Amino acid sequence: MDLFKELPNFKQSYIYILIASFFINILGLIVPITLMQIYDRIIPNEATSTLTWLISACGVALFFEAILRISRQFMSAWMSAQFDYTIGSKTVDKMLNSDMRDYEKSGFGVHLERVNAVGTMRGYYSGQVFQILMDMPFIVCFILVVMYLSFHLAFIPIAMILLYLLTIALIKGRFEQARAIQMDHNDRRFGFVIQVLSGIHSLIASALEEQILRRYESLQSADTKNRMLVNFWTMLPNNLAPLFTVSNIFLVVCVGSIAVINDEITIGTLTACTILSGRAMQPVQQLANFMLRHSDIKLANQKLDEVEAMEYEVAPGTVEFPKDVKGTLELRDVSFQYDNKLAPVLTKVNLDIQENNMVAISASGSSGATTLLYILLGILKPSNGIVLVGDNNLSQWDHTSRHTRMEYLPKTGELFKGTIMDNITMFDNTKYMAASDVAKLVDLDELVSQLPQGYETQVDSRSGGMLPSNMIQRISIARALIERPRILLLDKTNDAMDPETEKMFFWLLSMLKGKCTIVVVTSDDSLLKMSDARYQLSNGELVEVD
Fold it and tell me: How do residues 398-423 score in pLDDT, each as one tens digit?
């Protein structure tokens, strides 16, 4: 996956994990060997002093093994954090900068699952998986030691390990099937919840709570039944592991006891073989969990492949939009349609706007006026035709860097998590003075002063139900004007304004007219009269009107 080309360089960390894993498993041999010596030599010979030294040495070995395990876990956690940061940022960057039509092919729930896929992939590409791989060869090492001590006993852990892995392989198919269904249910459920929460006020006003609840209960019911199966298949290997481990130890003890009775091996040898056979099962349990998680990894990898397949809105390496752009706008034979199966939204639209002119576009309903503004912004690419901004072909420039030169104001404002001042400056503290000046210009000071914390009041996207709508609209206007843009695009901005805010808005437009280029989509007669030129958008065609 190209998405993983920017993975951090974990080479040195892998070396540390390899060294730690090697010594952890080598130190793991000390306890069974020590017990074998105690049972076979120290106890029969009553060698108390030797016992003291042996126990001390074993204690030191256990201490260093604990230190190595903690260090290895810390290194794995660090690698996981690095993976989360790098790939998580890369994934969100791809979504934010993807082509709008490509992005809108999927619902919010699907995009949320794609972001969550990063967490699933984290364990696969970080030290945890590598740690399991490093432990695997020592399974053979432990069994070879058992075979050296007692050839026949070694076949018991080998048989139990193979039987356990065969059982996990059978479980894996059922788990993958249930997990795939669960992810599909999650996509639909998350998408439904996001849509409901985003329109909660309209739903409550329409008294649709009961219908929405019934619909959610239906989705939740299907998801709950399948989630039960997922949890069952997920936990089954962990619940079976103790059974196989105990059975392994029990069989070793039973068969080994007969060998001890027949003087084929000593009690110490049986004790060492019992511990080593149990130790050999531990990495196998981790491998079994990974085998199931690998199903999740494949599904998560598909999600991230979908992110990777999304086209960038602007191709990487495209030249940054010029800072000294003029305020002229021109559309040459621009056509646009969202899908080949749908009717065109715009058909051969031609528009020439001179610098510092104010142009009004009269439109109503779904006439495509917002689409036209999105094309001027570069958010949508025309199916045919050319868009010129200040004599620059928009398709040849990185229009995402247009901020400060071209601003867009929708009908309703949007708040982001942070303070009111953060929402004006867009989290740039260097713009504090400019934000203060433009806030006064839109008469925001008086409204904000009524809040206990003033401009430091914390807000987010949910604050629309708590803050006055006129305050949110003025915050959005201040945000757009803070950089004194050369081009201002207004999309029915005054339609939802209260009389006082609309009065301020008209005064502001009169001050801006002649100082920047203004394109306003409106059906308001006052704005139409104020404009230097007026156009009518109907059935995808733009016609100038007198």
Answer: 766 666 678 888 888 788 888 889 88
Tell whether the model's pLDDT for residue 279 goes beyond 90. no
Tokens 């079976």 belong to residue: 240
User: What token pair was written down for 137?
Assistant: 């060869």
Rounded distance, CA 302 to CA 305, Å?
Answer: 5
Whether residue 179 contacts residue 120, with contact meaning beta carbons closer than 8 Å, is answered with: no
pLDDT tens per residue, range 174-201: 887 887 787 777 777 777 777 777 677 6
Tell me how far apart the alpha carbons of residues 495 and 498 are, in angstroms, rounded to a whole number: 9
In degrees, rounded to 5, the angle at the alpha carbon of residue 281 between the alpha carbons of residues 233 and 18 is 105
Q: Using N-to-C axis directions, what is the helix angle for 267-309 and 155-198, rounded to 10°?
A: 30
What span, in angstroms and rounded, lies between the C-alpha atoms of 450 and 446?
Answer: 7
Give CA 504 to chain center in angstroms. Answer: 41
- Write down the CATH superfamily of domain 2-309: ABC transporter type 1, transmembrane domain (1.20.1560.10)
Q: Which of 3-7, 471-475, 542-546 has maximum average pLDDT?
A: 471-475
CA proximity to 380, closest of 431, 308, 468, 313: 313
Tell me how far apart the alpha carbons of residues 390 and 176 are, in angstroms, rounded to a whole number. Answer: 55
- φ, ψ for residue 341 (rounded to 5)? -85, -10
Report, in this order, helix, strand and coil percent for the chain, each rounded to 5.
65, 10, 25
- CB-based contact 483:293 (threshold 8 Å): no
Provide the H-helix boundaries in 199-266. Answer: 200-205, 209-261
Domain ranges of the chain: 2-309, 329-545
The CATH code for residues 329-545 is 3.40.50.300
Beta partners for 519?
359, 489
